[in-house]
Design goal:
Layout lengths: L10 E13 L5 H10 L3 E2 L19 H7 L2 H7 L10 E14 L4 E14 L3 E10 L7 H11 L10 E4 L2 E3 L2 H9 L29 E8 L5 H9 L3 E2 L2 E2 L6 H11 L8 E6 L2 E6 L3 H12 L1 H25 L6 H17 L9 H13 L2 H48 L10 H7 L2 H43 L5
Parallel strand pairs: 8-12
Antiparallel strand pairs: 1-5, 1-8, 2-3, 3-4, 3-6, 4-5, 6-7, 9-10, 11-12
Keywords: Membrane, Transmembrane, Transmembrane helix
Protein name: Group-specific protein
Amino acid sequence: MEEIELKEKKVSHAIFQFLFPFSLLEGKEDDTANKLKENGYEWFRLDKLEKEDDYYGKYEIDHEDLENYYLPFTNRILFPKKEDGKGFQRYTKALGMKSTFKAPSYSAEFVIHSVDIFICPYQIGLLNVRLDLLNESELTYSEILDFGAKFRIMEEKNSITSVLCNGQSFEHVQEYIFECVIPDIKEYMSYKSEKSAYFESFPFFEDNRLYVQALISLDDDITEEDVYRLGNLDGFFQDKPYISTHNKEFVHSFIQEKAYTRWAPYTYILPESSGFFILTKQTGTELTRIANSFYGEFYYGLILTLFHKIVLLKLENNYSEIRIEQDTKKVEKLIHAINAFSSNYFFFELATQSEGRDIFVKLRDRFRVELLYEDTRNTLESLYQYQDNFTSKQSSSLLQILTLYSVITGIFGMNLMVENLDKDINWTSAFGSLSFYEYIALFVIVSGVAISVFLSIRYIAIWYMDKQERKKWRKQIEYPNTK
């Protein structure tokens, strides 16, 4: 078996985006949006062409090309035309904040160009930190990979890194992001687990690491080992380049299966479960074109796929917490949520171009979106079956009660007392002269009328409450803002 030999390489450019999904407080979507706008965030619209180069350092995205890249029904979700419309509401703020990442064997200076916060349906928020390494010419490829691997860890028990910003030192990335970069959002995040945890506001989430989107340009030729190391963020160990395998054949099969090699050997795209990676040796205008796609088409594809994964995990988690015999309303709400997701937000086809479709298919496969969706559809079928059985049982019981009253009333009430109802009745003497069977008939008639009135009122009340609840569910699921 051929041994893997690694040599250090120089990097001409390295840019990162770190994505953080979180849970919004229910009903606080409008307050969140208002707070963000008060603090300098702008609602993102494709028709604001003057913003094409405001948030991405020296790069820009073409809004018209971005819209044409996706299919129309996908555009309606990704780029809603109204702030209170259905879809992802993006709020962006340009920062230009310079900071320094301190590791035991190197320091990495970087600038945060801008921050995005998406207010999404299902009380889901997505936060994105967009940064550019400033001294990539001094950092080796291994050190840049190590930076990506360490920066994505929100909190470590025994941290060996720190971030310096505005004279302050933060031991954990979590503290740096929520105290220095984006202090505006903390009060609107849902804490359902440990108070010190953010990812645990999703009790079903995998770990406490950020999702990474990285574009790295090398000065040297790209090898399969370089691509593998980027996909796994294998930095260095004991000041030497590190790779998490010793099998060269394994690396080759990994690249063949998971990497998109249409533009190899110059550019490799690797959609992975931990993020979305691009490794290239292109320079000049070609690198600019790749970076524009990195910030535009690929970014939104990752956002949408990550949203699909989170919602499907959330629906499965909600199903596991339901006491199906008692939580009938929760069952109805879950059925509504699954149907709304399937009809409004889940699309098998996203992009209009063939390379976009191929890349996003790989990304969805790495995120296991299709498998999660099949599980959710099976859950929906189980819920429908239970609801049908429960409704049938309720209807059968009610029908038996009403049939019983009709029969008894026909036997007793109509035959014994109805003829007395067409004339004036002295109720005092009438009650005193009734026989035992007439008392039974009177009770049946009065209770039957009372039950009918009660059922009618109950039906109207349930109908009104259901209507209000479904309106509330629709606002929560389809329209994250309710202005």
